[in-house]
Amino acid sequence: MTNKFVKPGDTIGILGGGQLGRMMAVAAKHMGYRIAVLDPTEDCPCAQVADVHIQAAYDNVEAAEQLSDASNVITYEFENVDLEVARIFEEAGKLPQGAYPLEVTRNRAEEKQIAVDASLPIADYSIVQTFDQLTTALESIGFPAVMKTISGGYDGKGQYKFETEEDVDGARSFMKDSETYIVEQWLAFDVEISQVFTRSQDGEISYFPIAENIHRQQILHETRVPATVTENVVKKAQQAVAVLSEKMNIVGTFAVEMFVKDEQVFINEMAPRPHNSGHYTIEACNVSQFEQHVRAICGLPLLPVHSFPAAVMINVLGKHRDILLDRLANYHGLHFHDYGKKDSRAIRKMGHITFVGNNLEEIDETIAKNNIHMW
Ligand code: ADP
Ligand code: MG
Fold it and tell me: Which residues does the UniProt record annotate as the domain ATP-grasp (predicted)?
């Protein structure tokens, strides 16, 4: 595809109206773009800041055509986009990201395969459909292990962990007849990191600082920058990302989640869009992952990335939100984001907070003073 230039004043269509769409829209707005969003939920996070909300199901082809007519360029904010719909946009020449990265990242088997093809290290894995196949797979993979639905999972949803052989029987009721699963060796990693980056339509890559991610119950809890990894690991991670992004011809912001063990970098998961572990870039960098994404899909040159020496981002889940909002006036030194979600659930991502500073010790002190770790 030739470089598609979209001018401020034109409309960016966003498929999906969650927090990522909302933060993309906010970044696009300050550059003067208009926003149309397709999402089935009334008053969804992105609709609250968009010019046009087409309220319909993601696989509604008529609604997709309406979005296409209303938009000069289209982007997606999540990977479970209907492929038919993505192809309609691609054929109309309006989807610089393309449908292919979606195809790969929405299916864990294809995602692993692309890493294998690129000779990048990954945890041992096997694809299974039946309980018998699972027990055979576990014989070679060993324990601990984790089983994940092949598609549709996020924030640890659709995952089943095997600490020991005793957990195997419980998988019988977890497994559904027509589902396919991936079983993976559970890696005892030293650190978990992610590389969020943006690739332009000309193939230029700009990297954000590598983030260290701390998960609780398989949901991202905290992102810390700089990550506690060596220069050697940073180099390996960026080389891996460059290979993967070329293979998929990535355009826009993209994230690769990785495990680091004994200086080795294992690919875990990829996201063809801005990523939760890149939210810190809003306050800690001169250009956020969202602004850089908008620049890429609109055919603007990427900005060189400069950043604060340190940042910490903590997710605000439903179970934290009310306490946090009530006490907000007592907290110092934190940036607060609320996604405007109406339906608050205990482990749903409702917002996030970010601290920036000269070093992580200083930030940890600020966090301690605020008594933020109450949860
Ligand atoms: P999703 O983010 O789609 O829910 P992930 O595969 O990224 O799925 O799993 C969520 C988290 O669970 C990971 O970030 C990591 O902390 C942990 N995890 C998943 N798979 C493994 C594994 N094979 N070894 C160690 N930890 C894992
Ligand atoms: Mg993940």
Answer: 112-298
Whether ligand 1 lies within 6 angstroms of the CB of 187 is answered as: yes
ipTM: 0.98
Q: Is 257 in the pocket of ligand 1 (CB under 6 A)?
A: yes
| 194 Cβ contact partners less than 8 Å away, ≥ 6 residues apart | 210, 211, 213, 223, 255, 256, 257, 258, 275, 277, 278
Cβ-based neighbours of 190, under 8 Å, separated by 6 or more: 260, 261, 262
Model confidence, pTM: 0.96
Output the tens digit of pLDDT for each of the chain's 375 residues.
457 899 999 999 999 999 999 999 999 999 999 999 999 999 999 999 999 999 999 999 999 999 999 999 999 999 888 898 999 899 999 999 999 999 999 999 999 999 999 999 999 999 999 999 999 999 999 999 999 999 988 888 889 999 999 999 999 999 999 899 999 999 999 999 999 999 999 999 999 999 999 999 889 999 999 999 999 999 999 999 999 999 999 999 999 999 999 999 999 999 999 999 999 999 999 999 999 999 999 999 999 999 999 999 999 999 999 989 999 999 999 999 999 999 999 999 999 999 999 999 999 999 999 987 655
> Which secondary-structure segment (H or E) carries 211?
strand 211-216
Mutate to test the pocket of ligand 1, among 190, 258, 268, 273 (most ligand atoms within 8 A of CB): 268
Closest ligand 1 atom to 186 CA: 24
Point out the annotated binding site for ATP. Answer: 108, 148, 153-159, 184-187, 192, 215, 268-269
